[in-house]
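Hello support,

Our group uses your service weekly, and this is the first time we've seen a run hang past the timeout. The protein is Aminotransferase class I/II-fold pyridoxal phosphate-dependent enzyme. I'm not sure whether the cause is the sequence or the server load. Input pasted verbatim:
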Amino acid sequence: MEEFKSADKIQDLQNFGEFGGVNPSITDSSTYTFLKANTMQAVFEGNIEGCYLYSRHWNPSNLYLSKAMSELEDTESALVSSSGMAAISSTLLQICSTGDEIVASRTIYGGTYALLKNYLPKFGITTRFVNTTSSEQVKQAVSSKTKLIYCETMSNPMLEITDIRELSKIAKDNQCLLVVDNTFSPMIFAPARLGADIVIHSLTKFINGMSDCVAGAICASKEFIDSLYDVNNGSAMLLGPVLDSIRSASILKNLKTLHIRMRQHSSNALYLSEKLEADGFRVIYPGLASHPQHELIKNIGNRSFGHGGLFVIDLKEKELANQFMEAMQDANIGYLAVSLGSYKTLFSAPGGSTSSEIPEEERMQMGLTDGLVRISIGLDDNIERTYLKMKECLEVVLDKV
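Update from on-call engineer: The timeout came from a worker crash unrelated to the input. Re-ran successfully.
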């Protein structure tokens, strides 16, 4: 497959401001005026495009960012939302009705797991959780009631890589949709080009990269995006997960540097992973030859952006993991905090935080123990210095054992 030039797509975005500014003007309005009453009615009924009615529907700032996201993911259209979870829930509720089923990855973000396992059953929508790195398990789980297959390109927090090409074939064979969360790996993967029908992002993470906002995006066909904003039955229209226009403008500016940041995140993560693995630690990182899907990411990923900015180190025990994270924060390596994709290194023990919604028995089955530390490496310039500080933290913690 020809490499998708996502960086060029972002570089070529051109949005002049209202008064000729190099950045598009921020439209800080909740509602919009019309010169003719008939025009308002026609816009409300969806018969006129290019006019704005109310910011819960569309506004210029959100439209700029949505168009940028569709370029990034090579889809016909996109919309932005108030959070990644808003993007996920709006998508699933638009597709599924009472009696429908979802086949989902067993290793996904804890909030997504809770939505699928605990919340959607209230509406008669059930989920079968499987290992999506096994196409056979996915095939066996799909039934005549399945409306969509859901996975993360790079799973949270185990960093498993799903072969989107295989899942796309299964989805098409069974007349259902493939929905892929690409939050962990923007620019590294282009899920739509691999066969995904819908690509979801938490813009909060790498795409914004500043840890200063919460936002999401849905990238898909024009038909699907239009359905989300239908005034009668569109989940994005009726549930109201609107993103503030000022935040949209901020994220759009940060998006322009994503290609630079992703290369640095990936380079730093690979350096640390190789060093720590050589020191004898169990490290999970797709860029390591020891990773089960190392060859897969080489085959379907965009090599120029590496293998991602996250890695996991296994310290076996919860207390050791906690002491290591506290030591790293004291050494100013980064912050003990949830989330990821920031300019600053962030680390957490997902078993007790972002994956705590998953029952302990299921976490143990997938290898998500309390001793795992997920590290989202920042944009450190001197990564050797970071490694030496991290190694010292590990030595201090392990010497206490």
